[in-house]
Write a structure and sequence with these properties.
8-stranded mixed β-sheet; 30% helix
Length: 250
């Protein structure tokens, strides 16, 4: 069996032991850019992948996928994972860019800018150096200055639900008897929720939120909400059903 995992550092807790688990099962593991993991799953190049909601949704009408109800990444309110920054002294947002314009969190950030701040309805520009766009939306790094807005906080403010960022999905041809336990073993131990607090001197003014890792009914509902938004903005051609491994009705 073939497995794809993203190379994103913020997803590391979900795949910390992936190499060992895949080696034990004799599976072929590939580490790829986030958007590539979903593409490989949809195009039958791998059987199991850690994908974004956009990567899962891209399979609608093309491949029969199941979400594994196990470890996943979910952001609630302020989490400092991805941020939105503005060029100095701008009065109107005419352009949006990102170092990773095809990654899920920058795309969600751009949709929030369109819905809440009337930013242009155009794809993110790929900007790695030089003059940035009016609005830059990126996965945060230690080298980045503080962001003006937090992507997951903007989502939470608009949708009033958490933001699923990554879920395990597999094709129905995968080794379904093994994938559930395997993805649990791939995660680091312990896999505890992370309480995030904005680093301000006045703690009473600090924004806060949670990074969590467990699939549950609230996450499933939130995933449906994200898929609906992606369809509304025509990033998906139709709304995919959330098919969960182990359910007869799926």
């Amino acid at each position: 069996m073939k497995v794809a995992i993203p190379d994103a550092a913020y997803l590391r807790p979900l795949v910390a032991r992936a190499a060992d688990v895949c080696a034990a099962h004799g599976w072929d593991l590939q580490v790829v850019p986030e958007e590539r993991a979903g593409t490989m799953l949809v195009n039958h190049l791998v059987d199991l992948a850690l994908v974004s909601p956009l990567g899962y949704g891209a399979g609608v009408g093309k491949v029969d996928l199941r979400i594994i109800p196990g470890p996943c990444m979910v952001l609630t309110d302020y989490t400092n994972v991805a941020g939105i920054r503005f060029k100095d002294h701008i009065e109107e947002i005419r352009s949006m860019g990102s170092r990773q314009p095809q990654a899920f969190l920058p795309i969600i950030g751009s949709l929030m800018m369109r819905e809440k701040f009337e930013a242009p309805a155009s794809p993110l520009q790929a900007i790695s150096k030089g003059a940035p766009a009016d609005c830059m939306i990126d996965i945060n790094t230690e080298q980045d200055p503080p962001a003006a807005l937090d992507v997951s906080e903007e989502w939470f403010d608009a949708a009033e639900m958490p933001l699923p960022v990554a879920v395990w999905a597999c094709r129905v041809e995968a080794d379904l008897d093994k994938v559930g336990q395997a993805v649990r073993h791939m995660a680091q131990e312990p896999l505890d929720d992370v309480a995030v607090h904005e680093p301000l001197e006045d703690a009473s003014m600090a924004r806060q939120g949670t990074i969590s890792w467990a699939w549950n009914a609230d996450v499933e509902e939130a995933l449906e909400g994200v898929l609906n938004l992606l369809f509304f903005h025509q990033l998906l051609r139709e709304i995919p059903a959330v098919k969960v491994l182990g359910r007869e009705e799926s």
